[in-house]
TrEMBL record:
The lineage of its organism: Bacteria, Pseudomonadati, Bacteroidota, Bacteroidia, Marinilabiliales. It holds the Pfam family ABC_tran. One of its GO terms (molecular function) is ATP binding. It comes from the Bacteria. Residues 35-271 form the ABC transporter domain. This is Glycine betaine/proline transport system ATP-binding protein. CDD domains: ABC_Pro_Gly_Betaine.
Length: 416
């Protein structure tokens, strides 16, 4: 798959279950027999918070846990640093099992390896912004000068340089959350756990914070587990997304994987209203074994044969290194054949747009208006042709679920 899948596994969660209530053992036994959450509540008065969750978080990714209220997201993230004690299952951090750590070891892990950013910021009102940002370091006993230096760096990273001496009450919600983030970053943890960190913010500030987080992530490449009930937020910031319902993981995948291949009716209903244009990419839509013309081998006659067999009046051309060169049209190629030319190079049109595999439908749509052939998808580095995206696929994706632009697009497509 992608580069990311080759990276190290930072967190591994195996069959994690958390049950609230006194009769946990009894409830767990029922759960293992397949009894439902409602039935378990009725029989034992215990609530199943998380039900046999398993997943892996890769180093350097933003892993989003998403679900409606009560689906178990907070319970699950709090199991990762054992703020909630799992009833069953394991949590591995860098290969060692956190669920077996003693109190001292656990405290070390929390202070050094995993920092949490909360929805309600959790700032101390009588401490300055600098002291708040340095608070995690103070807890772990770092000398003042060192912790202040690290806290200042972290404040700069989140765009709060110059505010060090202010107090939280003087800051807006967005700024307070930046301090919360700076405090977590100052610890330089391997993993950031963000529990609905932006949910309390106004929409515009929320969007700014998401952008900010993505920029910070570009630089720092932390492993981030991020909880949200907002699907748009999950799609915007998540490298991969988990969708939870009733404590159970319904699906894990990239936004695109989830959208193109929802694992259940629940997920399908959930993602139904998402604007697919901004998510579906060339990589998903392309057919990757297109008929093409090799400039060094195929003369006009060979090219015409290929076009007729493929039923196309234009085909892409590549050189001997499989680099995409452009297109030839049937009508031009026929003229070359008549003139007994031996190469199609005179018919080659190089002024055609090509796209990379991460281009979204939205980015590709403007390219269809004046070109009648499929769009060439080329490798960003080598220029090799990876595949072609048919214009009809673009239109189908763009117009799914009654998009308003449907008529306009179909008209455009008919014109060309
Ligand atoms: N301390 C608790 N005692 C008993 N049941 C709890 C407790 N905390 C959570 N639950 C229950 O566990 C389930 C999962 O709750 P959790 O708070 O993890 O969901 P959530 O997806 O984070 O929801 P929200 O977005 O509302 O915070 C729910 O059924 C909830 O009622």
């Amino acid at each position: 798959m992608t580069e990311k899948s080759k990276k190290n596994i930072k967190l591994k969660v195996e069959d994690l279950t958390l049950i609230f209530g006194k009769r946990k053992k009894e409830a767990l036994a029922l759960l293992n027999k397949g009894v439902s959450k409602e039935e378990i509540l009725r029989k034992t008065k215990c609530t199943v918070g998380v039900n046999k969750a398993s997943f892996e978080v890769r180093e350097g990714e933003i892993f989003v846990i998403m679900g409606l209220s009560g689906s178990g997201k907070s319970t699950l993230i709090r199991c990762l640093n054992r703020l909630n004690e799992p009833t069953a299952g394991k949590v591995f951090f860098d290969g060692h099992d956190i669920t077996r750590e003693g109190n001292k070891e656990l405290l070390e892990t929390r202070r050094h390896e995993m920092s949490m950013v909360f929805q309600k910021f959790g700032l101390l009102p009588h401490k300055t912004i600098l002291e708040n940002a340095a608070f995690g370091l103070e807890l772990r006993g770092e000398p003042k000068a060192e912790r202040e230096k690290k806290a200042l760096d972290a404040l700069e990273t989140v765009g709060l340089k110059g505010y060090e001496d202010q107090y939280p009450a003087a800051m807006s919600g967005g700024m307070q959350q930046r301090v919360g983030l700076a405090r977590a970053l100052a610890n330089d943890p391997a993993v950031l756990l963000m529990d609905e960190a932006f949910s309390a913010l106004d929409p515009l500030i929320k969007s700014d914070m998401q952008d900010e987080l993505l920029q910070i992530q570009d630089k720092l490449r932390k492993t981030i587990v991020f909880i949200t009930h907002d699907l748009d937020e999950a799609i915007k910031i998540g490298d991969r997304i988990v969708i939870m319902k009733d404590g159970i993981i319904e699906q894990i995948g990239t936004a695109e994987e989830i959208l193109t291949n929802p694992a259940s009716e629940y997920v399908e209903a959930f993602v139904e209203k998402v604007d697919r244009k901004t998510i579906i990419t060339a990589e998903t839509l392309m057919f990757n074994k297109p008929t093409l013309i090799q400039l060094a081998k195929d003369g006009p006659k060979g090219a015409i044969r290929k076009m007729r067999t493929a039923g196309m009046d234009a085909l892409p051309v590549e050189d001997e290194n499989r680099k995409f060169l452009g297109y030839v049209w049937l009508k031009d190629t026929l003229k070359l054949a008549e003139a007994k030319e031996t190469s199609v190079s005179k018919a080659l049109r190089t002024d055609v747009p090509s796209v990379y595999k991460d281009y979204t439908v939205e980015e590709m749509l403007p390219l269809i208006s004046n070109h009648r052939y499929p769009l060439a998808v080329v490798d960003e580095k080598s220029g090799k042709l990876l595949g072609l995206v048919a214009q009809t696929s673009l239109i189908i994706e763009a117009t799914r679920y009654g998009d308003e632009e449907v008529n306009e697009l179909i008209e455009k497509a008919n014109d060309i």
